[in-house]
Amino acid sequence: MAESCCWLLVLGSVLLCSLLKALLPTVSLCIAKLLQKDGETELQMRIEIGNMKQELATISMMDEFARYARLERKINKTTDKLKTHVKTRTAQLAKIKWVVTIVFYVLQAALMISLIWKYYSEPVTVMPSKWIAPLEKLVAFPTGIPGGVGITCWLLVCNKVVAVALNCAQSIEL
């Protein structure tokens, strides 16, 4: 693995997964909007409620009480229907976001496990063992090669470095 620069493959995979994780809320929202086509219905209900409220404002409560009360009940009924519709859509949106997040983490775990499986016995790189003397066996896990950096250690280091770099990039944007 050290000769073939596959360490770059691991670093690229970790970077890609971390970037996708940062974009996960946006992606899940886009998927939810594609799957939910109820926005037009809600908009139509809101317009209808607005029109009825304008009409209600033109009616004198004292002179036309029956018409006023009927329109007010109709507004309340439509508003309740809209609230129920919004609650249902919000629950569906939460489910879709949850499913997208679970699928992402399952795929990420599968990718990491496949990388560990493929490069289990080969070190990512080999360095002088005195550089990592007290932690040599831990860093070399699972290869067991003295001075070698195992894939699991490399994945952990890459994940941490990419997370810190993305965190710094986000704090610079703010």
UniProtKB/TrEMBL annotation:
Family label: Belongs to the WRB/GET1 family.
This protein's GO CC annotations: endoplasmic reticulum membrane; GET complex
Main location: endoplasmic reticulum
Species this protein is from: Callorhinchus milii (Ghost shark)
GO molecular function, one term: protein-membrane adaptor activity
TM spans (from-to): 98-117, 138-157
GO biological process: tail-anchored membrane protein insertion into ER membrane
Keywords, sorted A to Z: Endoplasmic reticulum, Membrane, Signal, Transmembrane, Transmembrane helix
Matches recorded under Pfam families: CHD5 (PF04420)
Domain of life: Eukaryota
InterPro entries, alphabetized: Get1, Helix_hairpin_bin_sf
Entry keyword Cell division: no
Entry protein name: Guided entry of tail-anchored proteins factor 1
Signal sequence, start to end: 1-22
Location of the protein in the cell: Endoplasmic reticulum membrane
Topology relative to the membrane: Multi-pass membrane protein
